[in-house]
């Protein structure tokens, strides 16, 4: 079978501009696809964040005319490459829309508000309508005609709509197909009906069967309806979002298009996340040297968080956005019980101010048992993964999750709620799975502090009284391969099905 030609459209790309897991996928998947022999390019906005990385950016001499709300705006198309690859990244330059992340509290999509909260930019609909249209205007200048345009999340939800309704009759676009990936269905890009005028699309498309959602224009729904195929970032999440509990109002639509909906687990970038060659941790280690390696990393972690360096005290680690989705409230409710079980706890993250306050108060009450770092620090995130004995990830929902994949590779048994990608990647340490040698972590179903506490209690029982069984869980976890080549092979098959190539 011949190679495919793929254009990945994303509002963020790791190594250039990032707020979350979408950026990791938009960087790692194209690299893996290129490694499999496919022709791949990426297109994203040219943010101030890209300039701050110091990445070399070259001018292409290409100016794109982008229709927007009855007028035509000009933008330049710049070019760079994905870090550590030859995959080209095309940057849509329009400073009024995309170079505002240049001051305190100003991000890619949001700005800081009084009280520590964040609010979306009021013109996000205009910004990402413009970007979606620019993606399609860029197609003739890529040096190849894509078999598939792979759009991601609501920020590119209009790409499949524009492709079908405004570009399909043009020769360069006749055979181009689209895949739309939902990374988190809770974020939908819902705007007032007046935004239809910005799109330039026919007003009759704003109907319940296509773009309209309870009187609003919904960018995520647009991508789902108009794309040739839809996927999300784990098989379990693909099933969950067709239910009222997880579908965020779109479950009926997704049940209706279930024939084109699938799930592919994200990969883990082992070039960055592997204790055998991790420059951020105190001691490199493999499955053969995990006992000594993790002991050194644990001592280093305790030192970093100003905790007593006690090798026999289990350390529970958590690295997460401090929001309700991540189950922070469960951890805070169960945390006094964890201390009673003789544990130390370390937290790294940033999010809602009330969680900041609660964590700081908890640390103040137990300074010799609790460590807190509010914000994000890449090196410290690696240290938590390497130095903890258990990693806490009790999410309300989790489309895929990456930290549990990191934890598996680092031999830090993840404690997860069995939802979304967590259910697909962690094998619970039941007696049956322990006997079969397949257990890789610990999981529970009910979203409650009691269920989390009992699961940690069971994990600590193995850790303390059945060390051989606990060591087997660690070794089995480290042997798992959730690398990007596996994910890329599944995406390749999906692209071929969508484009009918090969």
TrEMBL record:
EC number: 2.4.1.21
Record: residues binding ADP-alpha-D-glucose: 18
Residues covered by the Starch synthase catalytic domain: 5-255
Keywords in alphabetical order: Glycogen biosynthesis, Glycosyltransferase, Transferase
Pfam families: Glyco_transf_5, Glycos_transf_1
Gene Ontology, cellular component aspect: cytosol
Database matches in CDD domains: GT5_Glycogen_synthase_DULL1-like
Reaction(s) catalysed (UniProt annotation): [(1->4)-alpha-D-glucosyl](n) + ADP-alpha-D-glucose = [(1->4)-alpha-D-glucosyl](n+1) + ADP + H(+)
The UniProt record lists the keyword Protein biosynthesis: no
Biological process per Gene Ontology, one example term: glycogen biosynthetic process
Molecular function GO labels: alpha-1,4-glucan glucosyltransferase (ADP-glucose donor) activity; alpha-1,4-glucan glucosyltransferase (UDP-glucose donor) activity
Class in the EC hierarchy, top level: transferase
Protein role: Synthesizes alpha-1,4-glucan chains using ADP-glucose.
NCBIfam families per the UniProt record, alphabetical: glgA, PRK00654.1-2
Protein name: Glycogen synthase
Organism: Urbifossiella limnaea
Upper taxonomic lineage: Bacteria, Pseudomonadati, Planctomycetota, Planctomycetia, Gemmatales
Gene that encodes it: glgA
């Amino acid at each position: 079978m011949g190679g495919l030609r793929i254009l990945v459209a994303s509002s963020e790309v790791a190594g250039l501009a990032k707020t979350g897991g979408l950026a990791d996928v938009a960087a790692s998947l194209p690299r893996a696809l290129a490694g499999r022999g496919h022709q791949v390019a990426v297109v994203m906005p040219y943010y101030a964040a890209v300039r701050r990385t110091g990445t070399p950016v070259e001018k292409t001499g290409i100016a794109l005319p982008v229709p927007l709300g009855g007028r035509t705006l000009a933008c330049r198309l710049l070019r760079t490459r994905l870090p550590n690859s030859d995959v080209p990244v095309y940057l849509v330059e329009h400073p009024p829309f995309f170079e505002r992340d240049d001051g305190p509290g100003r991000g890619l999509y949001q700005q800081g508000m009084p009280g520590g909260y964040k609010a979306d930019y009021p013109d996000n609909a205009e910004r990402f309508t413009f970007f979606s249209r620019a993606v399609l205007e860029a197609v003739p200048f890529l040096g190849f005609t894509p078999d598939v345009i792979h759009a991601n999340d609501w920020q590119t939800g209009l790409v499949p709509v524009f492709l079908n309704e405004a570009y399909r009759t043009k020769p360069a676009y006749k055979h181009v197909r689209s895949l739309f990936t939902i990374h988190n269905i809770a974020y939908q890009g819902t705007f007032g009906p007046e935004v239809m005028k910005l799109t330039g699309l026919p007003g009759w498309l704003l109907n319940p069967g296509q773009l309209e959602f309870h009187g609003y224009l919904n960018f995520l729904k647009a991508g789902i309806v108009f794309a040739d195929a839809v996927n999300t970032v784990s098989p379990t999440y693909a099933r969950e979002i067709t239910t009222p509990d997880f579908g965020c109002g779109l479950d009926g639509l997704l049940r209706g298009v279930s024939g084109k909906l699938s799930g592919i687990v994200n990969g883990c970038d082992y070039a960055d996340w592997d204790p055998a060659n991790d420059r951020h941790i105190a001691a490199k280690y493999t499955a053969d040297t995990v006992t000594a390696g993790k002991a050194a990393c644990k001592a280093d972690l305790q030192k970093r968080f100003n905790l007593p360096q006690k090798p026999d005290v289990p350390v529970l680690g958590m690295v997460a956005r401090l929001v309700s989705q991540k189950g922070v409230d469960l951890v805070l409710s169960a945390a006094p019980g964890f201390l009673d079980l003789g544990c130390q706890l370390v937290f790294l993250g940033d999010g809602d101010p009330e969680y900041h306050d609660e964590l700081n108060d908890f640390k103040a009450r137990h300074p010799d048992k609790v460590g807190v770092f509010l914000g994000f620090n890449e090196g410290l995130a690696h240290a938590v993964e390497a130095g903890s004995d258990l990693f806490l990830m009790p999410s309300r929902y989790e489309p895929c999750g990456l930290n549990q994949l990191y934890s598996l590779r680092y031999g830090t048994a993840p404690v997860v709620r069995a939802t979304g990608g967590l259910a697909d990647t962690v094998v619970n340490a039941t007696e049956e799975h322990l006997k079969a040698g397949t257990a890789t972590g610990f999981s529970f179903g009910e979203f409650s502090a009691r269920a989390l506490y009992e699961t940690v209690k069971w994990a600590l029982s193995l850790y303390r009284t059945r060390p051989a069984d606990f060591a087997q869980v660690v070794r089995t976890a480290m042997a798992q391969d959730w690398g990007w080549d596996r994910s890329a092979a599944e995406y390749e098959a999906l692209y071929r099905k969508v484009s009918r190539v090969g």
